[in-house]
Amino acid sequence: MDLGLNGKTALVAASSSGLGLAVARNLAAEGAHVSLCARDPARLARARAEVAAAGPGRVLSTPVDLRDEKAAAGWVERTAEELGGPHIVVTNSGGVPHGPVDAFSVPDYRTALDTSMIPHVAVTLAALPYLTAAGWGRVLMITSEAVRQPLPASGLSAVARLGLLGFAKGLVHTLGPRGVTVNVLAPGFHRTPALDEQFGADVDRAVAEVAARLPLGRVGRAADFGALAAFLASEQAAFVTGCVLLADGGATRGLG
Fold this sequence. Notes:
Layout: E1 9-12, H1 18-29, E2 33-38, H2 41-54, E3 59-63, H3 69-83, E4 88-91, H4 106-116, H5 118-134, E5 137-142, H6 155-175, E6 180-187, E7 190-191, H7 193-199, H8 203-213, E8 220-221, H9 222-232, E9 244-247
Parallel strand pairs: 1-2, 1-4, 2-3, 4-5, 5-6, 6-9, 7-8
Helix pairs in contact: 1-2, 1-9, 3-5, 4-6, 7-8
């Protein structure tokens, strides 16, 4: 299936590894030009080589701390100057510490908002003039399954990321008449370097325990998530907007 992404320019935030990198790879494989950013220059350089090998388009990489909104806007501007567009904006951010909601202080919550919510807002707002000028666009915000089913050990994540749903819903009405769709991706457990770090030395046992609780009997692969994001960025998904799409192997069973 031709996703209609050849020659489009995509911004993929926090894309030096894990789900962000998987999304960048899939978009590159569809012929898009891809702009990467992350904080670690060495990991970013490796990601750039990997994404460049995935497709024929150009790849730009920029070391950026997305908690700095001026730096985030600078990344968007540089992308527009060097690659054109952007047409596709995939927002992503670093994680926050695990623990129940009462395990953290007010400053911890402020930090969580700066880490897991504000970067999405900053990148999206900086990209809006380019999306609306093009008259075609896709905004995808990577959050967590915690926005649909808060988990006891994900207190900070659930609180910080829930604000994005209100932001996304507001954008749906603003951008719809201008040919831009806005969707939120809510991944569950995927085997990524971040998950390995979270589980530590017992990662294989912990992953097996998680998999046993899921209807599909396994955790996700980063490539699964990358393929879903590429579809939502495509021409074929032109009538899909305002959705929170779970990618959690069936873990969330609520009807709402």
